[in-house]
Amino acid sequence: MRLILLGPPGAGKGTQAKVLVDTYGIPQLSTGDILRSAIANKTPLGLAAKEVMDRGDLVSDEIVNGIVSERLDAPDCKAGFVLDGFPRTIPQAEALDKMLVEKGMHLNAVVEIKAEPEVLIARIINRARESAAATGQTRADDNEEVLRNRLNVYRDQTAPLVEYYRGKGLLKTVDGMAEVEEVTQAIRQAVEN
Ligand code: B4P
């Protein structure tokens, strides 16, 4: 099973990817998690990405494409994967198409998780509150001002991927505003049909 989860910030890509890992026994490839881990470890990649991510902008296609290409070569990706947060631009999608051909792989489905902006804002604010209460820390990009920029970036740079994948006959759309379990069921139904 080779899947892409597409959707605005807070739609539940990360939440659902973790469930799909257990359901299908495939790894989650989250570019957001990989970049945050590089920032935490203060690697050169992390130093380059931090300022961009803190503003809610996108890290360069070149950097992210390199990360994904390398990750797809790992043995655990042979049987499949769920891409969470990649691709996020048309050039990233085109680069992914090329990588998959070179690696002899193909996608089974691209799942768009849809949710309204008010719901997304409420979820992210809630995540920030819960994280602050539990650990005393929040993601630098989990505040309302940066989130509004992330939503604009999604509309301008990522939303065009919906038509890109519809054109390839791969697109499945699910309602991301339902309960987590219901969204999981909808995704399973969409990709298994
Ligand atoms: P990401 O890490 O991808 O994260 P995200 O946009 O916050 O979203 P996600 O949809 O995963 O939300 P989640 O499940 O956690 O990106 C962060 C940044 O990294 C980007 O802004 C960019 O700078 C950089 N980046 C990443 N990939 C890149 C790329 N390819 N190119 C360039 N830059 C890149 O859900 C959010 C909250 O909602 C959680 O608290 C969750 O519990 C809750 N929730 C989820 N589903 C719910 C439901 N059904 N009901 C109620 N609550 C729900």
Task: Provide a concise account of the structure shown.
With 193 residues, the chain is α/β, with parallel strands linked by helices. Helix content is 60%, strand content 12%. Strands 2-3-1-4-5 form a five-stranded parallel β-sheet, sandwiched between helices.
What order do the helices and strands come in, and which of them pair?
Blueprint: E1 2-6, H1 13-24, E2 28-30, H2 31-40, H3 44-55, H4 61-72, E3 81-84, H5 90-103, E4 109-114, H6 117-135, H7 144-158, H8 160-167, E5 171-175, H9 180-192
Parallel strand pairs: 1-3, 1-4, 2-3, 4-5
Helix pairs in contact: 2-3, 4-5, 6-7
Bound molecules: BIS(adenosine)-5'-tetraphosphate (B4P).
Binding site for ATP: 10-15, 127, 178
Subunit structure: Monomer.
Keywords: ATP-binding, Cytoplasm, Kinase, Nucleotide biosynthesis, Nucleotide-binding, Transferase
Could you describe the 3D structure shown?
The protein is of the alpha/beta class and about 190 residues long. It has one domain (about 1-190): Rossmann fold (3-Layer(aba) Sandwich). The protein is about 60% helix and about 10% strand. It contains nine helices and five strands. It has helices at about 15-25, 30-40, 45-55, 60-70, 90-105, 115-135, 145-160, 160-165, 180-190; strands at about 1-5, 30, 80-85, 110-115, 170-175. Helix 2 (about 30-40) packs across helix 3 (about 45-55), helix 4 packs parallel to helix 5 and helix 6 (about 115-135) packs across helix 7. It is globular and about 45 Å long. The relative contact order is 0.19. BIS(adenosine)-5'-tetraphosphate binds near residues 59 and 92. Its EC number is 2.7.4.3. InterPro entries: Adenyl_kin_sub, Adenylat/UMP-CMP_kin, Adenylat_kinase_CS, P-loop_NTPase. One of its GO terms (biological process) is AMP salvage. Catalyzes the reversible transfer of the terminal phosphate group between ATP and AMP. Plays an important role in cellular energy homeostasis and in adenine nucleotide metabolism.
